[in-house]
């Protein structure tokens, strides 16, 4: 049985356990809905277009927020790794910010820019930027010094050194940082949307809570999980596998 077969069996078993617990009646329907009720709520949301509109809004935000995080995080990571005084100061602060829950930025964002799209963007960028920077810094620092000395002896300087030697050598670790940054950005976005009044999956989840519609809440959670898994599987896993195979870290088939 292949990977997808095992995953399919696991999901069937999981839904079966869920259904059995619902039939056992330990909790009322308004607390623990059945798989059928959640499926119906998901179908209704898709049919009405509500879930599709919310998903599109969230994807637009994550594309912009994560894109900005990558640009700023890669630059910050490279600077921190190449200049000791920056790593000892700004890099040290980056480690502290990485441990700070992203939702802690939301009250400040509201005060600074208001309860609007910019506040959501601010929280999303703050949630991912430092994880990306830490991944890039760790990747560059893991490059054997011999590689850098050899490149410099061969005349590599400035932008050529970064684009032809440093970034390719650090790429596996950088990709791991980007992958982690994506997950942080997605979680930060959902947290910000929960507290916002603008359309998005997080806001749709909040609406379900206000209406006491647990089936809708679970359906939206499944959509959020699905988007996260799809992005990881379709983008990061494939790119990371290709890079690891190119670097000889896994066997080619």
Can you walk through the features of this model?
Helices cover 82% and strands 0% of the residues. It contains ten helices and no strands. The longest helix is centred in the last third of the chain and has 37 residues, at 158-194. The mean pLDDT is 85. It is globular, with a radius of gyration of 22 Å. The protein has 253 residues and is mostly helical.
N- to C-terminal distance: 18 Å
Q: What series of H and E elements makes up the topology?
A: HHHHHHHHHH
* Strand residues, percent: under 5%
Number of strands: 0
Could you tell me the mean pLDDT? Answer: 85
Radius of gyration (CA) equals: 22 Å
The coarse overall form would be globular
Structural class: mainly alpha
* Low-pLDDT segments: none
Largest sheet: none
Helix content: over 70%
What's a concise summary of this model?
The chain has 253 residues and is mainly α. Helices cover 82% and strands 0% of the residues.
